[in-house]
Amino acid sequence: MRDYSADYKGSTILVTGGAGAVGGNLCRKLSEMGAEKVIILDDLSSSYEWNIPKADNVNFIEGDILDDEMLKRVFKEQPDYVFHLAAHFANQNSVDNPEKDLNVNGLGILKVLQYAQLVDVERFVYSSSGCGVYGLESKMPFEEHDVSINLHTPYQVTKLLGELYTNYFQNLYDLPIVNARFFNSYGPGEVPGRYRNVIPNFFYWAMNGIPLPITGEGAETRDWTYVGDIVNGLVAMGVEEKAIGEAFNLGSGKDHQVIEMANIVNDLTGNEAGIIYKERRNWDVKTKLLSCVDKANNTLDYEPQMKFKDGLEHVHNWFENNWDNIQKSAEF
Ligand SMILES: NC(=O)c1ccc[n+]([C@@H]2O[C@H](COP(=O)([O-])OP(=O)(O)OC[C@H]3O[C@@H](n4cnc5c(N)ncnc54)[C@H](O)[C@@H]3O)[C@@H](O)[C@H]2O)c1
C-alpha cells in the first residue's frame, strides 16, 4: 500500500465518532500524515476524553451528529474529507435500544451526508459492517456483492441502511462515497464495556482474574482484524479514485476460533481462572465469519499485515499501559 501522506497533507478532515475505538486510531494516523486539521465530532456516548489522540492538529468537538448546530459548526470548516464512524454500537445495544439505534445510525448518517453534499466534500467514507450486511445465506468467504436483507439485529439493519443512503447520495448527487465493511475490529484503543467487543472484554476480565465467558461452544470463528490494518484501508479509500461508489471488505481474510482467542488472552495475562460456557445470545446466529479481501487488495492494494497473536499482544500492552483509566471507564 502506498504512502498517502502527500494526499492528506494540509487538508481538513472531519471524523465523526473520532473518539471511538477505530476513530481514535484513524485520527492519530491522519494527524501524523500531516493533515492541517483533523476535526473530531463525537458525543462521547461510548468513548472517553482520555482516549482521544492529543496533537496540535487534532480538534475535538463534543457534540451529537443529530444536532444541526453542531453539524453547521464542523462543516463551516469546509472539510475536504469526511470519515463517518459515529454509530450506536453494536448488536446487543441495538436489540436493547432499537429506536436509539435507528436515530443515530439512520437519521444520523442522513444528516451528515446532507451537510457533506452541501460543502462538496472530496470524499465521504462510511464505516459499514461486514458482520452486519452479510447473512446466513451469503457464501463464505463473503464477497461484496452477496449482501443479505435477512438480518438479525437492528444494528445490522441500520449499518446496511447507511450503505443504502451513501449509495443514494452517490447516485443522485454524485457525492464521492465509499463503503468500508469492517470485520470484527480489535486493537489498542478499545475500552471494554457492556456493549463492547469480545476481545477487550476478555482482556479486562482476564486481568481481573475472572473466567472468560464463552457464549456458545468456543468453536465459532471470527475474522478479527487489527485496527491498524483497518485504518490503512480507510486511508486508501479516502483517496483512490477507483474506490468511489464501491463497497470493500476490510477484514483479515483469516478466521480464528473463539476458544483459541480466549486461551491466548488467558496465557498473555496469566489468568488461571480459565473459561466458562454460557448460552449463545439469540441474535448471535452466525457461527462463522470470514471475509474475502480480494477486491480491496486489487483496488486499494489492501494487505492486512498483523498476525493475530501479535495483535493480541499489542492489546495486552495497551491495557497494561492504560489500566487505571480503563478500570475507571469500563462499565458492565
Ligand atoms: N469495532 C468493530 O468491530 C466494527 C465492526 C464493523 C463496523 N464498525 C463500525 O465502525 C465504526 C467505529 O466503530 P468503533 O468500534 O470505533 O465504535 P465506537 O463505539 O468505539 O465508536 C463510535 C463513536 O461514535 C460516538 N457516537 C455515538 N453516537 C454518537 C452521536 N449521536 N453523535 C456523535 N458521536 C456519537 C461514540 O461516542 C464513539 O466514540 C462504527 O460506525 C461501527 O458501527 C465497527
From TrEMBL:
Gene3D superfamilies in the record: NAD(P)-binding Rossmann-like Domain, UDP-galactose 4-epimerase, domain 1
Q: Which InterPro entries has this protein been placed in? A: Epimerase_deHydtase (IPR001509), NAD(P)-bd_dom_sf (IPR036291)
Name recorded for this polypeptide:
Nucleoside-diphosphate-sugar epimerase
What species is this protein from? Answer: Methanohalophilus euhalobius
Q: What residue stretches are annotated with the NAD-dependent epimerase/dehydratase domain?
A: 13-251
The family line of this record is:
Belongs to the NAD(P)-dependent epimerase/dehydratase family.
Q: Domain of life here?
A: Archaea
One Pfam entry name: Epimerase
PANTHER family, sorted: DTDP-D-GLUCOSE 4,6-DEHYDRATASE-RELATED
